[in-house]
Design goal:
single chain, alpha/beta, DHBP synthase, ten-stranded mixed sheet, 7 helices
Length: about 200
């Protein structure tokens, strides 16, 4: 496991390239997001998804959130209704996850475009989505610092291949999750965006 402190980085592009290279090699990285620290892997790696599940001590069948770098990338993988398009226009980038019908299966995929420049650039450079989930032990609170994460796992972070430490993140609640069925929405998790969405939609 390699740990890099963001405030000590002299060459931003080299760190970005290292993260892209690791993702392409089906490795798991821990990076800051616009909510909390997240565990991420390339979206089409079953091996890396199993590694995340093992590290978090959860089921390998538990769905992860797909992170895209643009709305154009989203349209390659999901069916987007007019309601979903309105929500995307109003609330992306930001802490809103939409469960949308997959173009490649009968199920739904949770998708998000974070309001985080490093994460957006990373996915754009990779040129395909990543899967992400909160970096925490299942049943524990989300981690807003690497120290918190280390405490949850008693210092044993070897299940992660690379950690980008950006210090203590601002406290933001996990994203609002909405399932879009046709032109109707179903609330899965409230989050900060729900107050505004519930009044407007």
């Amino acid at each position: 496991m390699k740990l890099v402190k963001f405030d000590e980085v002299l060459d931003f592009d080299s760190v970005l390239k290292e993260c892209v290279d690791l993702l392409e090699l089906e490795k798991v990285i821990c990076i800051p997001t616009d909510t909390c620290y997240g565990l991420s892997c390339v979206f089409d790696s079953g091996k890396a998804k199993e590694q995340i599940a093992s590290f978090k001590r959860t089921s390998k069948d538990k769905p992860l959130t797909m992170i895209v770098s643009s709305v154009q990338m989203l349209y390659k993988y999901c069916e987007v209704s007019s309601l979903a398009a309105q929500l995307i226009e109003e609330y992306w980038p930001g802490p809103l996850t939409l469960l949308l019908p997959s173009k490649f299966s009968d199920g739904y995929i949770g998708v998000r475009l974070p309001d985080h420049s490093f994460l957006q650039t990373l996915v754009s450079k990779l040129d395909k989505p990543i899967f992400s989930t909160s970096a925490n032990l299942t049943g524990q609170k989300e981690a807003y610092s690497i120290d918190e994460l280390s405490q949850q796992f008693e210092g044993k972070l070897d299940g992660v291949d690379f950690i980008l430490d950006n210090g203590i993140l601002d406290f933001n609640r996990p994203s609002t999750i909405l399932k879009i069925v046709g032109e109707k929405l179903e609330l899965i998790r409230e989050g900060d965006a729900w107050g505004s969405i519930s009044q407007r939609f």
